[in-house]
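Re: weekly structure request thread

Next one in the queue (143 aa):
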Amino acid sequence: MNQRLINILDGFDKKNIAVIGDFMLDRYFIGNAERLSPEAPVPVVLINEEKSTNGGAGNVVENLNHLGAKVHPYGIIGKDKAGEELLTLLNMEYVDCNNILLSDDRPTTVKTRIIANKQQILRYDKETVEPTSEKIEKKIIQQ
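Done, posted below.
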């Protein structure tokens, strides 16, 4: 391995890194499709596994954390079940989430993938594309 890369990786435990971004929950419904629906020409997926992971900026935080950096996440999530799940996933990584703001005005972004026979066949998103309120924006800048 390149010595420069080794030096960079060895130094991560001394780094403090701020991650400012869109925190989202990635959900996966995984199963098999053996037949088509009688209602429409679409596969019927028999789900045998469900999982959720950190998405967007949360994925970046998790990766930096695994490299040993002290990560400081800044962002906004909804005050909802998806937001609770996202905070739980980040807390499982021993990440300090005090600078992630909870908002009543917007939902936590959730990107859900349906995977059948090891092939993604659909993704659906629940999110708002509206700009955040000035009040929340000022809070993040202040932090």
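The chain has a mean pLDDT of 92. The longest strand covers residues 23-36.
Next request, please.
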